[in-house]
Amino acid sequence: MKEENKVMKKNGIIRIVIAAAVTALMVLVAVLGMGPDGSGSVGDIKLGLDLEGGVSITYQTVEENPSKQDLDDTAYKLQLRVADFSNEAEVYTEGSNRINVDIPGAKNAEEILKSLGTPGTLSFKDPSGNEIINGDDIVDAQGGAVQNQTTGANDYQVSMTLNDAGSKKFAEASEKLVGKNISIYYDGKVVSSPTVQSAITGGQVAIEHMESLEAARTLASTIRSGALPLEITELHSKVVGAKLGAEAVNTSLIAGLIGFVLVIIFMCLYYRIPGVAASLALIIYTALDVIIISTLQITLTLPGIAGIILSIGMAVDANVVIFARIREEIGAGSGVKDAIKTGFQKALSAILDGNITTMIAAAVLYFIGSGTVRGFAQTLFIGIVISLITALVVTRFILNGFYSAGLQDEKYYGKTLRVKKINFLGRKAIFFAISVAVILVGMGTMVFNGTKGDALNYSLEFKGGASTNVTFNEELSTEQVQKELAVKVQDAIGDNNVQTSKVTGSNEVIIRTRTLTQEEREAFSDMLKKEYGVEEDNIQVENISATISDEMRADAVKAIVIATILMLIYIWIRFKDVRFAAGSVMPLIHDVLVVLGCYAVFRWSVGSTFIACMLTIVGYSINATIVIFDRIRENIALKKGNETYADVVNLSISQTLSRSINTSLTTFVMVAVLFILGVTNIREFALPLMVGIVCGGYSSVCLAGALWYVMKTKIGNKERVK
To answer: pTM, whole model, 2 decimals?
Structure first.
């Protein structure tokens, strides 16, 4: 027996050493990466424009249903045009009539917007205005420097390659125009008028003696764009300064670290040895999350960071469910070893069902959403998958290692001797009344707001217009922002309808205007630089048309409806009872309406993160409800005596109450830290999410079981368990 214990202890120590080594290795890879290029590290993660800074533009074709070939050709010519601005620039089509242009790290944002703003016709004309060649005759154009053999100085020039037809036309014209100018027209405006030095044959044309390398590259880029096959208009543009992005990354990482440490401290203090095992698993989870995001080159955005931090908080839930089960088994008289085994087995169905429904919400968000919303969905989905693996496999491996190593006393694991059954159903009328009252206040406020304007405080993503976030060198007073700054903006853009709002406790000011033209944007930026000394990197501009905003509204409703229907179907199939499905979905609708009411009452800004926020609340809330319903299903199967369904519901809610509180608490802490330390965009996401977490916990505990009970007893006409 002693020999057997020695072997078991040795195996336990080996498990712990393996777990510690894997944890250290994962953290090392997440920090330093693999190989010379640092692949898989946090430093190798591809950052979105809102973090790295840069320019993002969405164009729509004037023609409603262009051919795929014309759309692809237009995108290709735009790709050639932006190549000089950044090696990482991406141009890609979206849907049947849109083209997106992303240029991360771009420093000359205004020049890019001006250059790409209205891509159109290109024409080379003689002094009489007769066209010699146009964009269709040009194969390529490159700007560069050629060293003068005599002086050794650089001569900046544009080298052009023409097709056969263009070569012939240009040769004939240049022969007649020696000593005269050939003007290059772009969208009807002259961009350059070089002088013909000699007849040009062979299709190779050089425009020499440009004033700078940048001027040569800009002209080459203009020529390369040629005559685009399709006429396009700007729907959405966004300019983000690199400094603002760096600040967002730093504050979010600090918030994530603080929240993570607080969660680990809570887990270790409350759950003891299981909490330590879960903490090691959470460290592995976080490192693995970073490695996967980096390796797959998923573009990380601000909402994406929020998705990671939120998924860390939610990853605790599976461990909490398991540990609560282990404590119950120990309290029921099982040995610690058997309690660990049984605890994992009994928690499995609730964990799987809860996480799968949340994954459904993330999947819907990914396929229906766009841009940063899809980034949030990606990180949330990956986080859920990894959390399942770490909770069900890694935590179990480590926990068994601690037990085998000699930590076998039940005091290290805790136990629940007897759950005090609380009469939640006896208060269901009060809960229903509170919920109805809160929803009516919210809906009433929306109606009232609607009579005066918009029911909700739609941001430009939902209304269209321009929003500019400016970080000044010093904090401006409220009077300076509302009077002095507003007037200067009005003068710069020629519009009296300007809204300015100061971000409390910072140097940041948000300025909202109608959609601005490129000239107005330049005048706006010039005013900020001249009057306030604001650097280019501290100006973040977003321009969105009404077309995009209308689609955002439609997508928000569509995403929530589709996710809710899919969840209902899944729960119906899993629980084999439509009442469980309805009892799960109705609290979701309650949570959405309550949070929507808060948006109306407190006039929170409804922006791009609104959809992600609502679907996160839906996924989070249903996860908590399923844990309770899983226990109700289990207790019904046990059939203790002549129990009523009321007894079963009250007991089930009471048994899962600690899980409901602890999971809500840990997730709330993660989001609260994010709210306190985060930048404006993150805070706009975190605040309603905090309300949603509290609301989701309330609806799961106080409403879900009661709704199921009412449907079971009133519609099913059954009071007692059979």
So the answer is: 0.73
